Amino acid sequence: MARTGILRTASTQKAERVKLITCKGCRQKTQPFQPGAKVCSETCGATFARLLREKLERIDAKAERLVDKQKLEKLRPLSYWRKKAKSALHAFVRERDHGKSCISCDTILIKTGKPGGDYDAGHFRSVGSAKHLEMDVRNIHGQCKQCNNHRSGNVIEYERRLRIRYGDRMVDELLADNTSRMYRKTDYQAIEAVCKQRLKDLKNG
Ligand SMILES: [Zn+2]
Ligand SMILES: [Zn+2]
After folding, report:
1. Residue ranges of the domains in the chain?
2. What is the Å distance from ligand 2's center to 121 Cα?
3. How far is the CA of 52 from the centre of ligand 1 (A)?
4. Burial level of 34, CB count in 10 A (0-12/13-18/19+)?
5. pLDDT per residue over 164-195, tens digit each?
6. C-alpha–C-alpha distance, residues 26 and 109, integer Å
7. CB within 5 A of ion ligand 2: which residues?
8. Are 141 and 103 a contacting pair, CB within 8 Å?
């Protein structure tokens, strides 16, 4: 009886000794270097240690980049956020008015993918004289570059056609609107997010 017990123990130990592992160094199905080891040789041990170290370095570098990005975003001036909001807003307006005529002449606004864009998002009440309406969608419309850049916004026609397109009430309200607005970073971020979403919705029809 005792003999059988010893034999059984010996065979169990032997079975444990030959239990195969997937070496963490060479990725082969093989015997461990020593019982309980995760690698098949010292060389693979060194490889495994290097892989682990590299993985940790990658995680560190990623975390560092994230912190840098957050620091950078904190340092950005308000003008940075304003610019981002403006660009998203204008992209939305250009898409909204695509296929319509210029807000101040008969030119049809079509995108051909020209660098710098085929037409602009032009302000009715100019940013120079009505800064508070800079981000107001009622005040911005698709406009051909000719009208926007070479006819000073073609304001008289802009107003006439705006009244036809949206009605007198909207235009009168816009002309009477002198409420000052204070935009903070979060306001600009919200404008950017909303405009990007609206643009996406328009593109998805
Ligand atoms: Zn190995
Ligand atoms: Zn025009």
Report:
1. 17-72, 78-203
2. 11
3. 15
4. exposed
5. 999 999 999 999 999 988 899 999 999 999 99
6. 62
7. 102, 104-105, 107, 144, 147
8. yes
pTM above 0.90, yes or no: no
CA of 40 to the centre of ligand 1 (A): 4
**Structure confidence at residue 166 (pLDDT):** 95
Place of tokens 């160094």: 25
> Computed from CA positions of residues 22, 23, 28, 32, in that sequence, does the dihedral angle turn out positive or negative?
negative
CA of 21, nearest ligand number? 1
Q: Please compute the mean of the pLDDT values over residues 91-101 and round it to a whole number.
A: 95
Report which DSSP code applies to 27: -
* Interval between CA 103 and ligand 2 midpoint (Å): 6
pLDDT confidence band for 5 (50 / 70 / 90): very low
Mean pLDDT, all residues of the chain: 89
Residues 6+ apart with CB under 8 A from 108: 99, 100, 101, 102
Residue with tokens 């898409």: 95
DSSP per position, 28-91: -EE--SSTT-SSSSHHHHHHHHHHHHHHHHHHHHHHHHHHHHHHHHHH--HHHHHHHHHHHHHH
